[in-house]
Write a structure and sequence with these properties.
The protein is α/β, with parallel strands linked by helices. Helices cover 41% and strands 19% of the residues. The chain has 2 domains: 195 residues, 3-Layer(aba) Sandwich (Rossmann fold), CATH 3.40.50.2000; 184 residues, Rossmann fold, CATH 3.40.50. The two termini are 23 Å apart.
Length: 409
């Protein structure tokens, strides 16, 4: 049965009041990408009064297991595995995850996996099969290299529902044979990601940026797929014509073969114009974005980005800032060029340069486009916009489960 969004009004539906066993391959406080998605998902579950038992796996300096009650609705179990262990020994984390899952499985109504990977989706699938429990997988990326393809396919096929963050992943999941797919895009807390005039002044003063200077911003990974070198090249060309512009780059080298951004800044002789800020806690990002006048996500065209739906784009737009984004992946369906943001050809330095220049030269119209971006996020990608889709999908699972029980009685 293909699961679609209910047509009836769900505003009057009761809160869910159920128990969720949640498996994640990262820490609760991981600040970017999947970690931000995790936090936002938990926020919405808590609004729906879902009791969550979270089991996570993290590579750290030492082995330990930590239990913590984080809120009225959230309990966490974190399994720390030493980074120094060989990869094959780290696989012993999976039995530990399953063992801890067994402690909570009987009182859990639904199992939820943060992604179809071996340390979240696989333990969730095993326990769901053993105890005949519904399973939801939140599908956010292409298959990771550590997950064998047959296991990856099996996790998706054996799920009750797959939430997919992009239409690319919706189509991919269907090709794997999973028919119960719900498009659940990136969503953010628009109350947190909004322009703060006081923080803008504080950050700009701290960075010695005056009122007449235009600050272009980037916040995120230095992974090669993010395309930061293209932004630096375009910015270098603009600096020759506009002395009043600066660039702030917030992030770090968090994956193998990351771009060496500090070296590139030196090679392009941009040290006087580019402010490099180390990766910041996620809760501080809105403050830095408030200091910006333009924001940019210059991703390259590759499979990872075609499947992606980067959260930073929605965070940028939610700040009412003119947002320049490569036309690749799901964001091409979100941004209308020149209406609520700006699309550029991936890897095209000239196109990126021209879009940034247009914004510099047309501040009033650019401000309107930035405000339209926030309106779009508020309407389609806020907690309020997404909460009902989650509630509908889970309610259908519960109704199906209760129906099966009645038929078996």
């Amino acid at each position: 049965m293909f699961i679609t969004v209910f047509k009836q009004d769900v505003q009057n539906m009761p809160n869910l009041n159920l128990n969720l066993l949640y498996f994640v391959p990262c820490g609760l406080h991981t600040g970017v990408g999947g970690g931000a998605r995790l936090k936002n998902m938990i926020d919405v579950f808590e609004q729906l009064r879902v009791n969550i038992q979270l089991i996570s796996y993290i590579s750290k300096e030492e082995f330990k297991i930590k239990h913590e009650r984080t809120s009225d609705f959230l309990n966490t179990t974190t399994i720390y595995i030493p980074k120094s262990l060989p990869k094959f020994l780290k696989a012993f984390a999976i039995p530990l995850i399953i063992i801890h899952g067994l402690k909570y499985i009987r009182r859990s109504d639904i199992l939820f996996a943060h992604s179809p990977c071996v340390t979240s989706g696989f333990p969730a699938m095993i326990l769901a099969k053993m105890f005949n429990k519904p399973l939801i997988i939140d599908h956010m990326d292409v298959k990771d290299p550590d997950t064998p393809k047959f296991i990856f396919n099996s996790m998706l096929k054996n799920s009750t529902i797959v939430f997919a963050i992009s239409h690319y992943l919706v189509d991919e999941t269907k090709r794997y044979g999973c028919k119960n797919v719900v498009y659940l895009p990136i969503f953010i807390n628009t109350n947190v990601f909004q322009r703060d005039v006081l923080e803008r002044e504080k950050i700009r003063n701290g960075l010695a940026i005056n009122d007449k200077e235009i600050l272009i911003g980037y916040a995120g990974s230095f992974s090669p797929v993010m395309g930061v070198p293209f932004l630096l090249e375009a910015f270098k060309n603009l600096v020759k014509r506009y002395e009043n512009i600066k660039l702030i780059v917030i992030g770090g080298r968090n994956v193998p073969s990351s771009d060496n951004v500090p070296l590139l800044i030196d090679e392009l002789t941009l040290k006087e114009k580019v402010i490099l800020i180390p990766q910041q806690p996620h809760e501080l990002i809105p403050k830095y974005l408030s200091a910006c006048d333009i924001v940019c996500s210059p991703m390259i065209n590759c499979e990872v980005n075609r499947a992606a739906n980067p959260i930073k784009v929605y965070e940028y737009m939610s700040m009412s800032l003119p947002t320049v984004v490569s036309a690749v992946g799901e964001v091409s369906n979100v941004i209308e060029n020149g209406v609520n943001g700006f699309l550029v050809k991936p890897g095209d330095i000239k196109d990126l340069e021209e879009k940034l220049e247009w914004i510099i030269l047309n501040p009033d119209r650019s401000k309107e486009i930035g405000e339209n971006g926030r309106k779009k996020v508020m309407e389609k990608y806020s907690y309020d916009a997404i909460r009902d889709t989650i509630k509908q999908s889970i309610s259908e699972i519960i109704d199906m489960k209760n129906g099966d029980k009645r038929r078996n009685e």
